[in-house]
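Justification of resources, computational component.

The compute hours requested in this renewal are based largely on the per-chain cost of generating structure records like the one below. Each record pairs the submitted sequence with a full structure-token output. That output is archived, and it is also reused by downstream analysis tasks.
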Amino acid sequence: MLFVGFSMKDCFAVSAPAFGDELLSARAMGTGGVGVAAQNEDPSTAYLNPAGLTLLSGTQATYGLSWVNLHGEYTDDSGNKSNMRSIDAAVPNAAFSHQFGEGGLAAGLSIESPYGLGTHWPGDGPLRYVATNSNLAMVVVSPALAYRINPSVSIGAGGDYYNTFDAELERHIDQASFGAPDGNSRLSGTAANWGYHGGILIEPNEHNSFGISYRSEVLLAIKGTVALTGLDGPLAGAFGGSNYATAAYTDLEIPQTVQFGYAYKPTDRWMFEFDTAWYDWTENQNLDVRYAETNPERLAILNQGNPQPTNLHNTWGFSVGANHKYSDRIQFRGGAFCLPSATPDSTFSPSTLDLTRYGLSGGIGIALSQAFTLDLSYTAVFYHNETITNNVGANTTGMAAYNIDGTYQDFTNIVMMNLTYRIK
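The structure output for this chain reads:
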């Protein structure tokens, strides 16, 4: 059997489990991604913990850009290596905040890309019949309001509009048995939906603060097409020619999350924070693609290996960070995080490369003037090498020879820059 369809499997991650990519701002990433306790003085708190908007005076706006550089590698059981194409991705971010009156009421807006995918395995490599190009491009727009109940407690809530404007899974089709070159299968689609989030900030005194935030799960019903090209022999006969396309549908579940943060400020110049986050991935137990095709022969080929189990499990992530105000113009930052994989070995796929990751980050903030601040950060993400033995390759292709067994490793560079404008 020759499988030419796909399940919309989980996507590659940079700094959150499964298909997360939480690059909120250079200021946040410079401190290891912390910010739930809202002591970063950063408008991106509208996304992370909206209650923190009450701490931001006047009107603030920030715009930033991330350069994400990915390097993946696969080594099969015989020692043969296949390098994933080096990926350079530009990920923008923006956020806005405004405090009304004496600080009792505040509003904010965050535009982020907290989930994303990018793996590109060689078209002539050993994994090509399971995965070649996999992409997920998404933007999340989060308006929020916050209110200071009393000097020690603030609350906030907002909506989350998820727009998946480009989802793609691609792989080759083996046609060597009838003397033809590889064909190609590409699943692509789009989706959009709303979720919500809320948070609480508690500051019992000037030295300590506690934050809790919650983000709802969101079901993204992806609608698109599956396109088969370069078909030959029996496949061309079954699908009526060398090219074929039909409508395809699948679901992608954004997990609910709960995050906790504690910040300690021993002096006006130092801030230390510890955050932890729980990701509820258990809704993603199996995913499948539904096709508009009604021909039984074509459906049998398209549904080879579909639905595909995912069996994701819940994870806890941890991050720590520090910020030092060296002078009135210069701030130095540093941090670290640990984020376990949400994908068990039994369902691991090279299209996701979901490996446990560890990050080290550093950054600097420079006050260019009373109104403008420039923040820069660098993060190195190290991935735990994983040796995989499973049936994903055989299940998705119908051929036991096309297994994905072997050792996977990865490394990511992340450089971020934000320019922030403040009106007191």
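The first strand starts at residue 59 and ends at 75. The chain has one domain: 26-423.
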